[in-house]
Amino acid sequence: MNYDVNNIDDNRFELTINISKDDYLDEVQNELKKKRKESNFKGFRKGKTPMGFIKRTFGNAILSDIIRKKIDSGLSEYLKDNNIELMLSPISSENQKPLDININDPKDFSVSFDLYKKPDFEIKGISSEDEYTSYDIEVDEKIIDDEINRLKNQYGKFESFDGDFTKECYITVNAKELDGDKIKESGYETEFTVKIDELEEESKDKILKLHTSDSFDFDIYKFLKDSNEDKVKDYILNIEKNDFEEGEDLGIGNIFKGEIINAEMFAPAELNEEFFNNNNIPNATNEEEYRNILRNEIKKHYDSESEKLLHLDIAEKLKEINEIDFSTEYIERWIKEQYPDKKDDEITQIIEDSKKELKWQSIVDKLLKKYNIEVTKEDLAKRIEEQARVMVGDNPQYISQIIEIMMKDEDRVNKTYNEIFIDKVFSAVANDIKKSRIKTTWEEFMELAKKYNVQAEANKNIESEEE
Q1: Which of 267, 285, 376, 391 could form a disulfide with 273 if both were Cys (CB 3.0 to 4.6 A apart)?
Q2: Nearest Cα to 236, choosing from 201, 199, 209?
Q3: One domain, residues 137 and 59
């Protein structure tokens, strides 16, 4: 076996693989003998089928298979021996004719391929002179305040109250329908609890002057703040919507006599050591320590998001400033072989998309050669665990179950592996560039990141169309 090489340009060349009869005849004879030994045809004892019959039946298929393997191995060996990396898979030369496979007339074969090498270029945009913006996202203390208040309210409780009412008091009222100034016989009776601050102003002023066990008259439709018929039925009369038809007259008057039968104040939970121990919240013994934990967790998340945006900025800059001259002719021929049923306008779009993808692949290849990146099993396990915690929180039992399921998902594992790989590549790149640190808020940062979210959606749409 030998080769002929015809260079077309810096990255394209035609490779002809020449296979002589001596390269394959012995192998063909061995395969024919093996097939004869294995064959069991009616009228012949096993292994005694005449060789002429074997050749007529299997000869061309055996010869074709051996020639194909010779071509594949010859192509691989040439590329390996000459340290050639291809941008796209080989395509048959335009002047290549079909091989004349005839077991009874063995001959020399020549097979020609057009090959496209990965371009060699100096990558720009990665040096101490190349400046990129890195965002220092400040933690809004209101976020921490809201989480602290949420926790206090979630674990707080109502406590009986005896004293002068305030707007924060909750009163339980037993109310009976009036007929004039007397309790209506067989009239409507209800019981409800309401926060005094949720009352209409005139009612609020009246109630604030009362105490538990005091009575008062009130109009049920003018008692609550922003009152309407549905709110009265729900909060005061305790009538569900399916208990009446829309517009139905319930036959209930407006004026009721109410007696305050109980008063309570909501006491938020105290965030002390006992609270954190009882609720399995580690590393905190008081509110200030927990605030610091929240602040650090939020900041860690912000820094991670900022790093992702920096990586995207670097990627976009590298795509912009690194010019790679691709052969449209080769790409078009290659794509037409891959998508024989596509129309011309579809082929044109695929070519443009392919150029962008090939450019990015070329840049990534350069980065991989520049930096010695390795993704370990520990890296993968840590990232999968992080994904599991996002899904189920910190429950150890659920986390272990989710991790086990996720590790069996080959697509997820491969995707996660690639994500870690790219993260590591761009973390290495980030160490070699100049970073301009700018303080910003989370809201401002999210506005800056919007353009990448739009681009990501566009890329997903392109990928879906290609599939």
Answers
A1: 285
A2: 199
A3: no
- Residue 459 pLDDT exceeds 60: no
Is residue 368 within 8 Å of residue 425, measured between CB atoms?
yes
CATH of residue 357 = 1.10.3120
CATH number of 68's domain = 3.30.70.1050
Residue 43's pLDDT is 65
As a whole number of angstroms, the distance between CA 381 and CA 289 comes to 30
Q: Do 210 and 311 fall into the same domain? A: no
Structure tokens that stand for 70 in this block: 């010779």
The residue segments making up the domain with residue 41 are: 2-116
Dihedral sign (CA 273, 279, 280, 282): negative
User: Given phi > 0 = left and psi -120 to 50 = alpha, else beta, which region is 294?
Assistant: alpha
- What angle, rounded to 10 degrees, do the helices at 344-370 and 442-466 form? 120
If one counts the domains in the chain, the total is: 3
Radius of gyration of the chain (CA): 39
One-letter amino acid of 246: E
Mean pLDDT of 149-168: 93
Who has greater pLDDT, 400 or 457?
400
In the numeric block, which tokens belong to residue 285? 């013994």
Residues 308 and 229 in one domain: no
Tell me, yes or no, whether 172 and 37 share the same domain. no
